[in-house]
Amino acid sequence: MLNSNHPEIIMKKKYIIALLASMITLGACKKNFEEINVNPVLPADLEPSYLFSNAQFSAALPNYYYQPMIVQQLITPNTGVLEGGNHNVSYDPNTNITFNYMYRSTSNTSGAIVTGPVVLLTTVLDKLKDQPARSNLYNMARIFKAYVFMILVDTYGDVPYTEAGKGYLEGINLPKYDNQQDIYNDILKELDEATKALDASKAIEAGDLFYKGDIPKWKKLGNSLLLRAAMRYSKTDAAKAQQYVTIAVNGGLMQSNADNALIQFNSTFNSPTGSWFQATERGNIYLAAPFVEYLQDTDDPRLRVISVKYAQPANPLATVGTENTNPADQLGMPLGYNESTISTAPGFPGRLGAGYAYSQVNRRTLGKIDIPEFYVTYSQTALLLAEAVQRGWATGNVATLYANGVKAHMDQLAQYDGTATISEDAQNAYLLAHPLSPANALEQINTQYWVSSFLNGNEAWANFRRSGYPQLTPNPYPTADASVKGAFIRRLTYPLREQTVNAANYQAAVAHNGPDNLATRVFWDKE
């Protein structure tokens, strides 16, 4: 049973707009077949822009229990509902979060139907395929669908794609799993074609939550996503990577933080990330030692606005006692412990009420309930382009692109809260002290990507696997899953429900994908 603060429950309670059209009683199952054999969640006349904005909204679901813990930015010693990447184990209620939320139509706690982005986007595309006057929304949906499926493939490998989201449209309730390489090939094609097809002379879709339908910004987003997808091939197909990097760069990438794809949450529609840091598990989630120590060792001014030591870690805003943000006093929690053994960790600072005296995310800056959720950022894009130039796949000044990426993330922090602003002087001093070294450029660029993707766990984990940076030591938890003991989690396991409900397609996926464990690598993640 999930507790009331599990992301599945939180998102169902607060963040997904219910699209319930009608309720059908069991006694009517044999009558009026044509009437009841209609999607009760997505009425035929529902405005496509409404479905699209809900797809954007419902995709704001990080998996806090794996990705940020695998890349050692967050950690908890606790077992139970928080189990996952903290102990390198496969725990179905948490490994299935991304799969279930992207694909499923499920009932929330009030009985209303909530629908994930795959179904929503598939329906938008079906409704608009023969409406050329609304080609912009059609192509925006193609671009965002590519974003969603990048996350799914990066997380699980082979997943349902060509038959996904078609339960109501075509009666496909047990979709086949597609070859992950085929999916990525189609993602590249879709991003390329859909971005080029956007046309500012056609209808502008103001219901878009990212840019209110601004076509130049959508073109930058499409090309920046294409750059991201292209760079996934850096270890497996350099020619293909360069081919699509060139297309993306020529099409025009994000140029500033004004181009960031984000949803700004508020006091009514709360951020899932901020709510997680404010909920009852707040006293159990800490910044991981490798992340804190890297920021300390480099005198990174971001540490002061990200990290805090609370006098009462479990208190919602730590109103009791002081809030210590002094970088020198921050202490990240070490990996490899549970609630029973954490007290044996070297330098254990002791307990404070229901929590521990380790550093946490500052709930007045990056942990507020109304913070934005970032999907794709200029900082990430500039750093990926810096790597592409370093590899000879694009032209430009690597050092300038690197500096732009670092400064962009420092500036981005102010979008969480004004008190998280990092001055230009502090930014310049940091870059002066840590200039790009050509001999270590790939490591520096991708380590900065790790920092700039903080709270964007899907992308931080994907780029860590792709690039191998930062250089982290595997989680030493003694009873980790045998497949990854002494190593890193490379993918998440499929939901247990798929093994029984969609057994034949699940088995075919495992036969192609490899063992359904935490060690099997996705196709672009080569050793």
Automatic annotation (TrEMBL):
The keyword Lipoprotein applies. InterPro entries: SusD-like_2, TPR-like_helical_dom_sf. The keyword Lipoprotein applies. Keywords: Lipoprotein. Pfam families: SusD-like_2. It comes from the Bacteria. This is SusD/RagB family nutrient-binding outer membrane lipoprotein.
